[in-house]
Amino acid sequence: MSTLFGDDLVARPRRELAPGAVWVPGWLTLEQQAWIVARFREWTRGPVPLRAAMVGGHEMSVKTVCLGWHWRPYQYTREAVDVNGNRVLGFPDWMVRLGRRALVEATGDPHAGDDYTPDTALVNYYDDTARMGMHQDKDERSLAPVVSLSIGDTCTFRFGNTENRNKPYEDIALASGDLFVFGGPSRLAYHGIPKVHSRTAPDGCGLDTGRINITMRVTGLAG
Ligand SMILES: O=C(O)CCC(=O)C(=O)O
Ligand SMILES: [Fe+2]
C-alpha cells in the first residue's frame, strides 16, 4: 500500500487497551532497531549466553539473555546460576533513558519517567516456532511499569485481564519498532505470545528472521 498519505500510520494508531496498558506502534525508527539488534548480538556473546529457561521441567521455546539481573522461573539473581554461574551484564544507561522516554511517550506526561529506573531487562529471542504462554510478570517486588520493545518479525500478542489467563483478552499484532507499556491497573495483567509471523520483519531492522522482545522492569531488589 502507498505510504504517500501515511496509510501505514493511520492503520496503526497508538491505543490504550486497558487503563495503564498502552500500545505505540512504530515507536522505534529502523535505525534504532538495527542499533539495538547489534547490541543484542554483543549481549549474546557473553558472559551469559542466550538460553531457554526451564519451566516445570520443560525448556521454553523462547531463548533469553538478561541485563542487570538474571531471571529464571521464578526469581532474579545477579549470577546466572542455572546457566554458567557468571554475573550478568550491567543494565545500560542508554536503556534507562529509553525506558523513561517510553513512559513519557505512553502517558503523554513529560514527567512520567522521572522516577523510573529499570534495573533488569529480559531480552527474548523467538524463532518462528516459539511461543509464550499466558502469564503475569510478577517476580518483581515493584509494581513500576513494564516497558516492552519489539524488533523483527511481527507477533500476535495476547493481552488479557488481571484475574486469570482466560478471556477476556485481546490479540494485537506487535510489529518491529512497536512499544507496549503495561503499568498501573494493568501491571499484573496476563499476557502471552501465541504466534510469531514468519518472514514479516522489515528490511533494515537488523534481523532477517525471528523476533526480539525486550522487557525492562524494576525488580525492587537490593544488592
Ligand atoms: O515477547 C513479548 O512481547 C512478551 C514477553 C514477555 O511477556 C516476558 O518476557 O515476560
Ligand atoms: Fe511477560
From TrEMBL:
- InterPro entries per the record? Alkb, AlkB-like, AlkB-like_sf, Oxoglu/Fe-dep_dioxygenase_dom
Boundaries of each Fe2OG dioxygenase domain copy?
Answer: 117-220
> Which Pfam families would you find in this protein's record?
2OG-FeII_Oxy_2 (PF13532)
Annotated GO MF terms? dioxygenase activity
- Record keyword Nucleotide-binding present: no
Alphabetical UniProt keywords: Dioxygenase, Iron, Metal-binding, Oxidoreductase
Q: What SUPFAM superfamilies does the record tag this protein with?
A: Clavaminate synthase-like
Q: This protein is called what?
A: Alpha-ketoglutarate-dependent dioxygenase AlkB family protein
Naturally occurring in which organism (per UniProt): Microtetraspora malaysiensis
Q: Which cofactor does it need?
A: Fe(2+)
